[in-house]
Design brief:
alpha/beta, six-stranded mixed sheet, 9 strands, binds inosinic acid, binds magnesium ion
C-alpha cells in the first residue's frame, strides 16, 4: 500500500498544524452562532473528526453522502446518496470537505442546502485544487492547503476505496490509476 505513493505531500505533523489553525479560526468566527458542521462522506470523515476537536465552542455535526467519482476521473454527475438528518433552518452551516476539485460536488450541495434557509452557509475544505476547477463560482471560505493538479490519497481520501487510512496526504503514483482505466 505504501509503495503506491509517489511521495508524501503533507505529513501527519503538518496536517495537525493545519487542522489546529483552521479550528482556531472557526472558533473565533462562530462565537455566539449556531454552528452545524456538515461533512461529506466518506472522504471528509478523518478531517471532520480531527477538526471538530479543535473547535472550542458548542457545535453539532451531521453527514451527507454524494457520488461523482469513479476511479481517478470525475463522471461529472453528482447525486445524493444520503441526506442530512437535521433540519438546517436558522443554523450556521459549515460544510467540511476533504478536497475541492472540479467544484461540481460543492456547487450541487450548496445549491440544495441554500434552499433550506440556513442562517449562513460556508465551506471549509482541507485541500483546494484550483487548477482542476470547472465550476468557478464555488470558493472555499476556509482552506487547509492548496495542491497541484495531481491525484492525492490518504487522511480520508481514497482511490477506489483504498488508502483512506494513511495518516498523511500523498500523491498516488500515476501508473496505479492509469493502468486501471
Ligand atoms: P469535485 O466535485 O470534482 O470538486 O470533487 C470532489 C470530490 O472528489 C472530493 O470530495 C473527493 O472525494 C474526490 N476527489 C477529487 N480529487 C481527488 C483526489 O485528488 N484524490 C481523491 N479524491 C478526490
Ligand atoms: Mg468526498
Amino acid at each position: 500500500m505504501f509503495n503506491d505513493a509517489e511521495r508524501i505531500l503533507i505529513s501527519e505533523a503538518d496536517l495537525h498544524k493545519i487542522v489546529s489553525k483552521l479550528g482556531a479560526e472557526i472558533t473565533d468566527d462562530y462565537k455566539d452562532k449556531n454552528l452545524l458542521l456538515v461533512s461529506v462522506l466518506k472522504g471528509a470523515v478523518v478531517f471532520m473528526t480531527d477538526l471538530m476537536r479543535e473547535i472550542k465552542i458548542p457545535c453539532s455535526i451531521d453527514f451527507m453522502a454524494t457520488s461523482s467519482y469513479e476511479g481517478a476521473k470525475s463522471t461529472g454527475v453528482v447525486k445524493i446518496i444520503k441526506d442530512l438528518d437535521e433540519d438546517i433552518t436558522g443554523k450556521d452551516v459549515l460544510i467540511v470537505e476533504d478536497i475541492l476539485d472540479s467544484g461540481r460536488t460543492l456547487s450541487y450541495i450548496t445549491s440544495i442546502l441554500l434552499k433550506r434557509n440556513p442562517a449562513s452557509l460556508k465551506i471549509c475544505t482541507l485541500l483546494d485544487k484550483p487548477a482542476a476547477r470547472v465550476v468557478e463560482t464555488v470558493q472555499p471560505d476556509y482552506t487547509g492547503a492548496t495542491v497541484e493538479d495531481e491525484f492525492v490519497i490518504g487522511y480520508g481520501l481514497d482511490y477506489n476505496e483504498k488508502y483512506r487510512n494513511l495518516p498523511y496526504i500523498a500523491i498516488l503514483k500515476k501508473e496505479i490509476y492509469q493502468n486501471s482505466k
